[in-house]
Design goal:
Shape: elongated
Number of strands: 17
Strand content: 25-35%
Distance between the termini: 54 Å
Radius of gyration: 25 Å
Helix content: 25-40%
C-alpha cells in the first residue's frame, strides 16, 4: 500500500450499522485508503457492553467503554449510537477537539441540528450525515451540493421502510393493518415498539432534515405536521384502488407562494408535512414496494429527479456512512475549513392549515333521498368543490339496504376549510360516520 498519511477514526456504537461499518473499514482498509488519499486507522469502538453479540465479528481489543478517550484522540468520529444523549454531548466534544463527524442520527439532527452545525462552523470542522435521511440512498449530497444552484420546488419522499412495507402489503394483498404489522415485527422490519415508525415520528425527523437542505432554511421538528398510518384499513385501500390510487406515507416538503407580509417578506414560504396520502398509480412513487425508500425531487431547472433504494439495513446504511468517511478524509488531506450548512433563506414554515391540496373524503350516510344533495351543500358552503362522487349501498345481513358509502374526490381546497367542513359534515345529522379523509398528492 502507498505510504499515506494516517488518520485516526473513532467509532461510537457497534449495533446493526456500526458493526458493519467497523467490519468494512477493517476488511477494505487498503481500498478505502486509495480512494481517500489517507490510511483510515480504526483506533477504537465505543460500546456499552463489550460482550454483547454483534452482527459482525470485531477484534476485542478495539472495543472500549471509554468514548471520551477515543473521541479526543481522533481525526474523524463516526457516531452511530442513535438517540439524543450522550450522542449530542459526544459529537460536540468531537467537534470541539477538531475532529470531523460522520453521523446517521436523524433524531439528533432534526432536534439539535443548528447547534451542531454552528459548533462545527466555530472550529472549521464538517458534519457529514448522508445516512440520516434515507439509509443507503444518496440524497443529502444532491440536495446540498448538486442542486445548490437550482431552486427546489417540492420533495415527496417515502422515507420509512416499515410503513411502506405495511401499506404495500395491505394494498397488494388486501391484508389488515394489525396482521401485516405483526409480520413486519417477525421479519425485523418493525421494532417491538413500532410507534416511531407507524405514527410518523421517524419520517418527520427525516422530512425536517430534507426540507432544511432543500430550502436553505432551518426547519424545527415541531414545525413538521405529522400523522401516522394506524387508521388506514383494508376498506380505505380498496377505495383508493378503485379510484386509481395507492396509499403511501409521504414526507412532503414544498415551496409555496404566499402574500407578502411581515411573516413572509419575500412572498415565499414552505410547508413540511408527513401523512398517509393518495398518489396516482402512474406516479413513480407508487411503484416503490416492500421496505424500500424513494425521494422524488422537483426542481425549477433540473426538473423531476428520483432517488430510489434501500432506506435501512446495516450493510446498506454502512455504505452511506463510509462514503462520508472518505469525504471527511479527503477534506483533512486537502486542508482548509469545512463547508457549513446554508440556512440563510429563513423562509417561514406554514402550518398545515395554510396548505392547498386535493382530498378524498369517504362517508357513511343513511340511504335516503336528498342526503347527497345535503352533503354537497355543506361542502359548497365550506368552499370545497366536488370533482367526483361515487355512492355504494351497503347491504345488511337481512338483504335490506339502510346505509350508503359515499367517496368524494375534491378539487384543490385549503386544508383549514376542508377540516372545518368535515367537522360540519360530522355534526350535520345526515352523516353516520366519517370513514376517512385522505389528501391527494403528486399532481
Amino acid at each position: 500500500m502507498t505510504d499515506y498519511r494516517r488518520l485516526r477514526v473513532a467509532l461510537l456504537g457497534a449495533g446493526a450499522v456500526g458493526s458493519q461499518v467497523a467490519d468494512l473499514l477493517l476488511r477494505h482498509g487498503d481500498e478505502l485508503a486509495d480512494r481517500a488519499g489517507a490510511a483510515l486507522d480504526l483506533v477504537g469502538i465505543a460500546v456499552r457492553d463489550p460482550d454483547a453479540p454483534r452482527d459482525a465479528e470485531l477484534p476485542r481489543e478495539l472495543l472500549s467503554t471509554d468514548a471520551e478517550e477515543l473521541i479526543v484522540g481522533a481525526d474523524i468520529v463516526i457516531e452511530l449510537m442513535g438517540g439524543i444523549e450522550p450522542a449530542r454531548s459526544q459529537i460536540l466534544l468531537a467537534l470541539g477537539s477538531g475532529a470531523d463527524v460522520v453521523t446517521a442520527n436523524k433524531a439528533l439532527l432534526a432536534t439539535h441540528g443548528p447547534e451542531i452545525f454552528d459548533a462545527a462552523d466555530q472550529v472549521g470542522a464538517s458534519v457529514y450525515y448522508e445516512a440520516a435521511a434515507a439509509g443507503a440512498i444518496p440524497i443529502i449530497r444532491p440536495l446540498r451540493d448538486s442542486l445548490a444552484g437550482d431552486r427546489v420546488q417540492r420533495i415527496m419522499g417515502i422515507v420509512n421502510g416499515t410503513t411502506n412495507y405495511i401499506l404495500d402489503r395491505m394494498d397488494r394483498e388486501g391484508s389488515d393493518f394489525a396482521d401485516v404489522l405483526a409480520d413486519a415485527q417477525a421479519l425485523g422490519y418493525a421494532e417491538a415498539d413500532p410507534t416511531a415508525d407507524i405514527e410518523g415520528f421517524d419520517a418527520a425527523q427525516k422530512a425536517a432534515i430534507l426540507a432544511s437542505l432543500a430550502f436553505h432554511t432551518a426547519v424545527p421538528l415541531g414545525a413538521v405536521h405529522r400523522e401516522g398510518i394506524t387508521n388506514v384499513d383494508a376498506q380505505m385501500m380498496d377505495a383508493a384502488r378503485r379510484a386509481g390510487y395507492v396509499i403511501k406515507l409521504l414526507a412532503v416538503c414544498e415551496r409555496l407562494q404566499v402574500e407578502v407580509s411581515d411573516e413572509a417578506p419575500t412572498g415565499e414560504a414552505i410547508s413540511v408535512r408527513v401523512y398517509p396520502a393518495l398518489i396516482s398509480r402512474e406516479h413513480p412513487l407508487a411503484s416503490v414496494h416492500g421496505a424500500n425508500n424513494a425521494v422524488f425531487v422537483q426542481a425549477e431547472a433540473a426538473g423531476n429527479l428520483m432517488f430510489y433504494g434501500a432506506g435501512a439495513g446495516g450493510v446498506q446504511t454502512a455504505s452511506a456512512v463510509l462514503g462520508d468517511v472518505v469525504s471527511a478524509a479527503r477534506r483533512h488531506i486537502a486542508g482548509g475549513v469545512g463547508v457549513g450548512e446554508s440556512t440563510r433563506a429563513n423562509l417561514p414554515v406554514l402550518p398545515v392549515g395554510r396548505v392547498t391540496t386535493r382530498y378524498q373524503i369517504t362517508l357513511e350516510v343513511a340511504d335516503e333521498p336528498g342526503v347527497l344533495a345535503t352533503v354537497a351543500g355543506i361542502l359548497a358552503e365550506g368552499r370545497v368543490s366536488i370533482a367526483t362522487a361515487l355512492q355504494t349501498v351497503i347491504t345488511q345481513a337481512n338483504g335490506e339496504s339502510g346505509t350508503a358509502r359515499i367517496v368524494i374526490g375534491t378539487h384543490r381546497a385549503l386544508e383549514q376549510d376542508l377540516s372545518e367542513t368535515v367537522d360540519r359534515l360530522a355534526a350535520s345529522g345526515v352523516v353516520d360516520r366519517i370513514v376517512s379523509v385522505l389528501r391527494v398528492e403528486g399532481d
